[in-house]
Amino acid sequence: MSEALPLTPAAPHVDPCAGLHASSSEGTSRAVGLVEAMRRARKGTQPTPAEITEAQESLERRIRAHMSKGRVQVTLTDNRYTMISVRRVARERDKSGARHEKRYEVRLHHMFADADPVITRALAKYVVDNDSDASRVLGDFIDENTEHVRGRARRTPTQVIFTAGENYDLRQIFDELNERYFDNKIDASITWGARTGRPKRRNSIKMGSYSVEDRLIRIHRSLDRAFVPQFFVAWIVFHEMLHQVHDIRVKNGRREFHSKEFYADEAQFERYDEARMWERQHLDALLTY
Question: Which CATH number does 13-26+157-287 carry?
Fold first, then answer.
């Protein structure tokens, strides 16, 4: 899932996949209200605010999903100098003599609260193995999100699942593709993205995204229009479904969202060539929404 980069007016672009990049405006923000909550917590007069507790527990769960063993305890901070710190605690015995799993106490800047699965996997590898490739990925992520260090957290509304559009029902499209191409093995939810304001001409647009940890596909509402053929919507949905089949690789310390194998499978879509041709012919209309 790659990020659609702004282009010049002479070279408009439609990205069929919104990507797992942390700066995606379609992503579900796990940092809502964290800065304000941390300010309240610093006063020390009340229990830890619920926003912080929920974000920490969510991040613990998502990091733990990439660990074969051990426990992780996350504390989110707004420290401007130390973005990651890890304390590795050896296996301990309780009063009954039973040994517990090794524990990792991790302090992370709140920029990691809504990190994508590639980053949470890199966190797991760095925490457990102090992996050098993971360290490089995390370094890039920190560089890309320096605005969080200055205290500006994004505010994105909670995602609501909504499959029935004005012209297309995404659940019906998803189910048909799942049966035809995936033997009903894709386990994911699907929804139309958030509504936008007045129509405007854009230089780029992200047609869809897939959240690995939430198993959620989002499709841009620009596609829920009468002039957009169903086979084109289906192609975008098919593309996002493939992300549950193909893992996101890290090559030379960089995230590879679409491998050669991914593109080869995407080309198996029955109307693949027709969909790409239709996209090229209707770029301007797609970008005006």
Answer: 3.30.2010.10
Residues of the chain with CATH 3.30.2010.10: 13-26+157-287
| 3-state class percentages of the chain: helix first, strand second, coil last, to nearest 5 | 40, 15, 45
pTM: 0.51
Q: pLDDT digit string (tens) for 4-48? A: 333 334 444 555 664 333 334 333 344 546 666 776 666 665 667
List the end-to-end C-alpha distance of the chain, in Å, as a whole number.
22
Tell me phi and psi for residue 151, to 5 degrees: 95, 15
CA distance 216 to 188: 6
Q: Which of 83, 56, 219, 217 is nearest to 141 (CA)?
A: 83
The Cα 41–Cα 33 span in angstroms is 12
